[in-house]
Structure formats: C-alpha cells, structure tokens
Amino acid sequence: MRREASYVTATTTPLPTAVEPDVDLGPATGLTCRECGASFPLGARYACEECFGPLEVAYDYRGVTRASIEAGPRNIWRYRGLLPVPSTVTEVPNLEPGFTKLVRADNLAAALGMRRLWVKDDSGNPTHSFKDRVVGVALAAARELGFQVLACPSTGNLANAVAAAAARAGIRSVVMVPSDLEQQKIVTSAVYGGTLVAVEGTYDDVNRLASEIAGEEEDWAFVNVNVRPYYAEGSKTLGYEVAEQLGWRLPEQLVVPIASGSQLTKIDKGFRELVHLGLVDDAPYKVFGAQATGCSPVAQAWKAGHDVVRPVKPDTIAKSLAIGNPADGPYVLDVCRRTGGAVEDVTDAEVVEGIRLLARTEGIFAETAGGVTVATLRKLLASGQLDPAAETVVFNTGDGLKTLDAVSPVVGPTATIPASLEAFRKAVSA
Amino acid sequence: MRREASYVTATTTPLPTAVEPDVDLGPATGLTCRECGASFPLGARYACEECFGPLEVAYDYRGVTRASIEAGPRNIWRYRGLLPVPSTVTEVPNLEPGFTKLVRADNLAAALGMRRLWVKDDSGNPTHSFKDRVVGVALAAARELGFQVLACPSTGNLANAVAAAAARAGIRSVVMVPSDLEQQKIVTSAVYGGTLVAVEGTYDDVNRLASEIAGEEEDWAFVNVNVRPYYAEGSKTLGYEVAEQLGWRLPEQLVVPIASGSQLTKIDKGFRELVHLGLVDDAPYKVFGAQATGCSPVAQAWKAGHDVVRPVKPDTIAKSLAIGNPADGPYVLDVCRRTGGAVEDVTDAEVVEGIRLLARTEGIFAETAGGVTVATLRKLLASGQLDPAAETVVFNTGDGLKTLDAVSPVVGPTATIPASLEAFRKAVSA
C-alpha cells in the first residue's frame, strides 16, 4: 500500500496553507500525509483521515540564514526558524537540549584505517540521550496546541526525557513503563516527580494502553503518539548541527542507528532542507543504517531487497533500538537507496566491542545504541560498503551510564592486589 | 602552625620568576608555598621544601581581556590565559570539559521563597562531573612537564575522568580503587581500557599506596598527588564561568560543596583574579560551604569557631564528598569568614530530599553532592544565614546516574496496574 500511495503524492499540491487561527508554530503551516499528500491544518492529528498514512509537518520558511542561526542560542532553538515551535520558544523554561559536541575521532579513525571520522555525541544532552531533542520540540508544540499534560509510553530514555522536561516546564507528566522494568531504570524517571505508572505487561501492552488513553484524554499530549509529527521533527536538529559544526557543509557518509527509523529519515530531511535553503552546498552523501541483529527488520528487508519491513520479536541488549515493527522502516530503505548507502546489523557481542572501542579510543562511553553504530561502521568498512577515505559521521545517541549491564560482564579490574608496593610492582609493569 | 605561617606570607615577595627552561605552562611562572611564601620553579613539586606547606601556582597574566576570552572555545580552554597549561593546549586531543550550563532556577527559587537563583550544572561535563575540569588541567600540565602516565587513587568520579581523559589523549592511565567498590562503579572507569587496579583495603590504603608509587615512578603523574597544584587550579574555571555567564559580574551568594575544600577556595580565587584583572567589578559576595553531617569536619570547626579542622571517619551517602581529613579545610574557613558566609551540614535524609527537590523543580538529576548543596541552601535560608533576596548560585558537581542507590529506596511508581483503561482511570486521575 505504501508504494502505491507514494505515486499519489507526486500529483497533489504538497504545501497546505490552512492554519488553525491563533496557533503560532513558527514556520509550520500545516500537516501533509506522507502517502497521499492530503493536507490538514496544524493540530493534534497524526494519521491521515483519507488513507491513514503518517502526517508530516509542512513549512513556509522565511528569512533563515546562516547568520540568523549563528546568532541564536547554543541549543536546538537556534534552528527554531526550521521547527514547528512558537517563535517565543526560548522565553519559556525548558531543558535547552542540543548543540552537543561533534567530536573529531582521530584515534578511532586510526584504529579503523579511516581518514576523517567524527562522532556526534548526544550523550551530552540534559538527560543524556537524543530524546531531549524530540521531547523539547513536542513539548513546545503541545503547549501551543493547548495540551495540559505531557505523556509517553517508554522503557527508558524517552521516559527520562519527558519526566525531566515536564518538571522544568512546570507541567504535569504521565510516564508509563512495563512493571518488570529494573528498579534502576524506574528511578531515573520517577525522581523528577511526575506520575509514573507501572503497567503489568510487555512494552507493546503499555503502548497499546497509551494509544487508548490518548484517544480519551483530549488535553494529554503523548509525545510519540498524538503529537508525533511535531516530536519527530526534533531529530532534524541532529542533521542541522552536524552540517553547521562542519562549517556549513555536508559529510560524505553517515552511520545512524535505527529504532523506529524516524531519526535517520529526519537527519536526511534536515540535510535536504539546508541544501534547499542554500545554507550548504549540494553535495552527495550516503546514509547507512545500523541495527542490532536481534532486532534487525530493516536490515533484513534491505538485504532481501524488499520494500516492506516484516515485524520481528526483539531479542538484543540494545534495548533503546528494540522496536520490532519500525514505523519508518520503509522510509529508511528509501533514504539508504536514494543516497547509495546501506543497512547493516551487528551481533550483541559486536555491540559490546563497539562500546569498548569507542571508549578506549575517544573517551566516550556510549550506550548500547552507540555500540551498534560503531560496530556497524566497522562491519561496513570490512565489507567494503563504506569508503575509509570519505569523511564520515557516526551518531552516539545515548549514554553508557544507562546501559551498564551490557559491558559489566566483560570489563573489570586489570588486577586485584594487596595494598603494598611490592604487590603493585608484581601486578603492573611500569 | 598554619596560622603562624600565614603571617610570614605577607612579608615575602609573592611572585616567583624562576621557570624551568623549555616548560610552557602559559602564564604560570612558578610555585609558591601557601604557608611560608617560598618560591620554586615550575615542576612536579607539591609540598614546600621549607615548611611542607601546600604549593600554589603563581602567574604573570598578560593580555587577558573579556574579548580574548569570549573569542576562545566554549570549554575551559577559553580561560587558558589564566591556567597553568601550554598555550597550545587546544591543539592536543582532549575531552574539552567545561562551559557547562548556568541554569536559571525560577521553580526552585519559588519553592524556597528566593528572588534569583542559579544552578551551575557540572553534570554536563564529558564524564558528568566537575572532575573533568581538574583532570583536564592536570593532564595538560603533566604532558608539558614530561610525565608519561596519568594516574590516581579514587572511588568514583575522579577515576572516570582520568581514564576517559587519558584514553582520548592517547596516553596510559593507571587508576587505583578499593577492591570492594561496587562492580558498576568499576565498569564506568574500566570501560576506557586503561590499567585499573583493585586494591584490598580502604580508600585511605589506596591513597597511601598511590603516594608511595608516586615517589618511585618518576614519569607517573598522580593527578591529585604529585601534580596537585596544577590539578587544583582547574576548579577556578567554575568561578570564571559563573561570572562570565552572568554577564561578567559576580553573584551575591554561593553555595559550594566541600570534599577536600579545594573547589570552594579555587572558585573564590577565580573571582578575585577576575576582579584583580578588571574583568568584573569588585562587588561583595558571600561563600557558603556545604557538607553532609556524616562527614562534616569543616562545618564542625566552623560552628565551634576553630581554625583547625579535626579529622573524622566518614559515614554518609555523599561518597564523593566523604573526605574525613580535608586538606583545604582551614582555607575554606578563611574564605567563608572573609566573605561573611558560613559552613553548614545536612543529614543523609536531607540530601535525598535535596536531590528530589532539584529534580522535581528544574529537571536536573544531581548526584548526592548536588543534594548536599541544595539541602544546605534550604537549611541556610531557614536559619536566616542566607538572604533569600540576594542573587545566589548553587553548584551541582555531578550526575544522579552515578548515585542511583541514594534515591532508589524512596522514589518509585505512582501506581502499578493491569494493562487496561479502566485500571488506569482508577489509579490515575485525569
């Protein structure tokens, strides 16, 4: 159905102009169906009323220049002219996510035989994952659209980000998690003091219940459900930042982790917007997607040459990527095909090695998702799919402190000794 | 002895000029004894050869202006003209710590009945504590002084910072920890791949062994032992940043946690340097010190009106502050007396409440040290020692993800329910 519908898009007028009165979402003008191209005014819609396709924010950008961006704050709001948020977004207390470091990774490059490699390190965000970006945009849009409560189903990073963002914004949060989640992961969200509901069941059960509630509670914004079109746009800022931090140009290759697939497609969208607006030169780039083998529906579809992504039951240590039925999977396939990239997957053992390699070479302790990306980078180089001479950016989207269990079995003391100089000398060569 | 010696200081020439040839430590000209004023050339000294007093870096600052600082990178190296580091420090790969957020904390201020409150949030550093600052300076100085290995005894944040910084710099690290440290805390340093030695004994045993090794291994820099004078200077950047981020002015009140006491004295030193250099107006400020009651030797001395600090055996959840014999304790007393501040301590239960209060109001999840500071702020307000109308900065020096055990017993789900809308409605009011 997706493929058929996409032909329709080309024949419809893409830019809707119907805007609900009194809604200031900056340059956003409406919502457009990604499949059939139907247009809707800005509001709490997320599925097309015609074909049930996903809705995308449509824009009318004006007056965005390199200088106007560079004059902005050093967080995602410097790109507010390209996001569906009120023009006054910086005046409301928020966590000010983004503008995380783009780290030049010469040691890792040398270890892998590459010429120029960068790590976009989103562990530097306020709650230490890229989710602060998408939640920041969702919260700003949700307030403008009249929502009173910020909510989500989650098993980790998203729950942290929603609970923290709502606390600082002074609005109520309702976070829903599976009741068998480890106490440690519950603590990191519960500490922010919102409502945290433990639901007996799997994450799918929690997700389903959240959708039911979203249908009933008109003033609750479930960031990844009923305000998802706005939320997803937050990931464009990863693309904007990489381009700006490279000195307003695009890298030649990207390696991006895939959960729902949204992040990868939005980084690509961000790049294309910058080209369209004349903020960077139009240069070819290849987008590579990274999955853990234990949850690799997109990689499997890629390797089989399919257009559709067959759902899987996740079984991997990379839990933040463990979405068995990725909503944007088909769009990921499109992007990787269009740009000449690929989708690859790596085993859990390779993920752990990826985390260790990045930590040992660059002093960056990534969560499992970052391990997936680094391990995939290595695998793509080994298979010759990725060019070691081309400038490459890999994305670390979270912090190792949140997934200690992944490396705990394999790293430990070099030696355990009595407290004497002699014992030290015996154990450690100077 | 300390008191007597400090009279001597006033009668000696304070600025030494003897510099070892070929050593470029920027504006640093030598080392001066804090007690007797004796001068020594720059090198791996840390105790006065005359009186065993601690050595401080002496400087000859030239050409440092607001503009020259503002033109620098957005990390501690923008202040390299005020630090004992090579002028080329930015050209060598490093973690680029610092320039963390100064968060305007209106919600917390409202909760406490204050007029203007800021949180200097050092959890945003690369390994999520202020230790990245001091280790960054120690590493830069140690390389210039010819050391080949970066080492430390530690139980947590410092070990993380040393192992990560050495990994990125491509030099060897040797980190020593007590062998009964929790596996999770070992993982967060071991992952960076240096040598990690678990020593059977207490932290004091580890520390003693480290000093022994430092006396034997000439090319090993123990950051907090034989290159401590340089290391300690890194904390000045907290003061510089607060002043710059306030628009080049000083706040009226500060609340700073006390472990060794070094950080508090260096923030004060940073402020005085800025005044001396004409970078900020000379305005009065009060410095308040914060300790956990279970390790509060400085607070006890303060309350008893003593000049000396009597060592204690630490027993508190605020482990990153648990130094029973704080080297800079007497200097902390001096600073708090001179500025009209105070030193106060809070119970472990108050520490936990401090963590929760900051998280709920500002979305910042602090480690126990941050809880100590916030709880002390509250206590000082209640006792009338701190003025609620005066502009105040509190320091959060670490990240809650590293001390989950502190809050784990007291935060949890609001409700645990079956996966049904009805159960949700019963448990959670909309």
What is the fold's blueprint, element by element?
Two copies of one chain form a homodimer.
Chain A: H1 2-11, E1 28-33, E2 39-40, E3 55-59, H2 66-70, E4 102-104, H3 106-112, E5 117-121, H4 131-144, E6 149-153, H5 157-169, E7 172-178, H6 183-190, E8 195-200, H7 203-216, E9 220-222, H8 228-233, H9 236-245, E10 253-257, H10 262-276, E11 286-292, H11 297-304, H12 329-339, E12 342-346, H13 348-362, H14 368-382, E13 392-396, H15 404-407, E14 415-418, H16 421-427
Parallel strand pairs in A: 5-13, 6-7, 6-9, 7-8, 10-11, 10-13, 11-12
Antiparallel strand pairs in A: 1-2, 1-3, 4-5
GO biological process, one term (chains A, B): L-serine catabolic process
Enzyme class (chains A, B): lyase
Protein name (chains A, B): Threonine synthase
Description:
Chain A is an alpha/beta fold and 430 residues long. Chain A has 16 helices and 14 strands. Chain A has helices at 2-11, 66-70, 106-112, 131-144, 157-169, 183-190, 203-216, 228-233, 236-245, 262-276, 297-304, 329-339, 348-362, 368-382, 404-407, 421-427; strands at residues 28-33, 39-40, 55-59, 102-104, 117-121, 149-153, 172-178, 195-200, 220-222, 253-257, 286-292, 342-346, 392-396, 415-418. In chain A, strands 4-5-13-10-11-12 form a 6-stranded mixed beta sheet, sandwiched between helices. In chain A, helix 13 crosses helix 14. The longest helix of chain A has 15 residues, at 262-276. The model of chain A is unreliable at 1-19 (pLDDT under 50). At the A-B interface, helix 5, helix 6, strand 8, helix 7 and helix 13 of A face helix 5, helix 6, strand 8, helix 7 and helix 13 of B. Strand 8 of chain A pairs parallel with strand 14 of chain B, so a sheet runs across the interface. Chains A, B: This is Threonine synthase. Chains A, B: One of its GO terms (biological process) is isoleucine biosynthetic process.
